[in-house]
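ok, trying the design again with the full structure, not the truncated one.
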């Protein structure tokens, strides 16, 4: 093994009791700060809100750092809340959640060696000619390392953090209780669907046998599609808490921003086309839009697809519901759009005509892009700003506050992530030509 220091190194707390104690210690520390701040405010003749006392700059940093150190369910819940609640969250909460969207701490070498021992046994070194202890990537469930087999084949090995799988449910309950106690989660938004979604997604992502099967399925589905590369599973070195696959040399997808415009545009069009195929043809979607899950191979123009832990089956009802919505939007059928939005669960039934028009106006902004004419320039347009302003206006209308069914949350996340990526790369794509193939 090759030991190299990593400045992000921090041990993962293991065991439910240890993790619960750390969460409890965080809550106690926050509560102490609240009591002190409240007393000082009262002495000044003020009556502050609880959320004002909780979310001091020091507490924001403390809360984000502790959730990042714990990784697992606490970190994943923060990521989901950030992406799903959007404009409805106060700025203080968004500061915490933005920190949780970034890369996590990593395991120090001593803990990493124990994880390898637990996964492969005492003779784990015989499975590898070399194993780099400094990870290629780290996230909420595990971290990925470069390794060589005894015969010299390059691998990427994803190792699950110790204790994370067994503590998913208790971590979620503790993190949700802390979020509710802080007063920063709007009372009008039901946190339970997001908790259920986070719970299901985390248990699925912690199942490396399931992820290995999804990796193989996508390899079969995209076999022969020269636009994409899907790593081959190394079943001989895959275990319950270790997932091994062929290492595919590539560069961060963001480097495409420097490529020739036609190359960049073709790559983004390929990713958008893949998303549509996942929804309407495969009914199987890799739902995590993290930029790190897409890599670029400039010498061949291919996109390397990574991380299939968040792969989800799409029900026929949801797939067909989106097709009905797409057709109505392309045809300019306003009544059909509203009916489809209700059927899919994006809006509540029984809204007033004024509020239905507000929702329709927002939907029309998106469908105008799908109808064209011509290519859409992701960089030089004000679509995101207009949508954000409309979203903030909706945020002020509490009758419109609504979280869609959990089954649709992952799809929103995937589409939003691809839009952000296309914007980052400054792509121009003939979106009408893409979507009409599936209407």
């Amino acid at each position: 093994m090759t030991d190299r220091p990593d400045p992000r190194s921090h041990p993962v707390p293991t065991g439910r009791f240890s993790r619960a104690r750390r969460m409890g210690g965080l809550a106690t520390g926050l509560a102490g700060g609240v009591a002190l701040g409240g007393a000082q405010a009262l002495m000044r003749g003020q009556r502050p809100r609880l959320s004002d006392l909780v979310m001091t700059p020091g507490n924001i940093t403390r809360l984000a750092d502790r959730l990042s150190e714990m990784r697992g369910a606490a970190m994943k819940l923060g990521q989901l809340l950030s992406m799903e609640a959007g404009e409805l969250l106060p700025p203080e909460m968004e500061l915490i959640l933005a920190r949780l969207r970034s890369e996590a701490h990593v395991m120090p070498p001593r803990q990493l060696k124990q994880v390898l021992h637990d996964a492969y046994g005492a003779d784990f070194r015989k499975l590898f000619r070399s194993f780099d202890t400094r990870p290629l990537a780290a996230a909420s469930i595990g971290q990925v390392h470069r390794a060589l087999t005894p015969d010299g084949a390059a691998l990427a090995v994803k190792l699950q953090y110790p204790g994370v799988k067994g503590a998913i449910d208790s971590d979620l309950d503790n993190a949700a209780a802390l979020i509710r106690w802080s007063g920063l989660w709007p009372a009008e938004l039901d946190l339970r669907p997001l908790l259920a979604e986070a719970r299901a997604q985390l248990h699925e992502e912690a199942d490396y046998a399931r992820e290995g099967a999804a990796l193989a399925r996508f390899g079969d589905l995209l076999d022969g599609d020269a636009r994409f590369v899907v790593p081959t599973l190394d079943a001989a070195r895959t275990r319950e808490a270790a997932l091994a696959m062929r290492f595919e040399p590539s560069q961060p997808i963001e480097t495409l921003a420097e490529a020739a415009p036609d190359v960049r545009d073709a790559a983004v069009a390929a990713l958008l086309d893949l998303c549509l195929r996942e929804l309407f043809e495969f009914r199987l979607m890799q739902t995590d839009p993290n930029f790190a899950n897409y890599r670029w191979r400039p010498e061949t123009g291919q996109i390397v697809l990574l991380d299939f832990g968040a792969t989800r089956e799409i029900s026929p009802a949801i797939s067909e519901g989106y097709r009905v919505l797409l057709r109505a939007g392309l045809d300019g059928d306003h009544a059909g759009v509203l009916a489809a939005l209700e059927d899919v669960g994006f809006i509540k039934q029984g809204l007033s005509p004024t509020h239905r028009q507000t929702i329709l106006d927002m939907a029309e902004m998106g469908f105008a892009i799908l109808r064209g004419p011509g290519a859409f320039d992701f960089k030089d347009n004000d679509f995101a700003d207009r949508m954000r302003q409309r979203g903030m206006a909706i945020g002020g209308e509490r009758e419109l506050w609504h979280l869609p069914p959990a089954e649709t949350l992952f799809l929103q996340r995937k589409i939003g992530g691809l839009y952000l990526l296309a914007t980052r790369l400054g792509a121009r794509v003939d979106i009408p030509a893409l979507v009409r193939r599936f209407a």
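Keeping the full-length input from now on. The chain has a mean pLDDT of 78.
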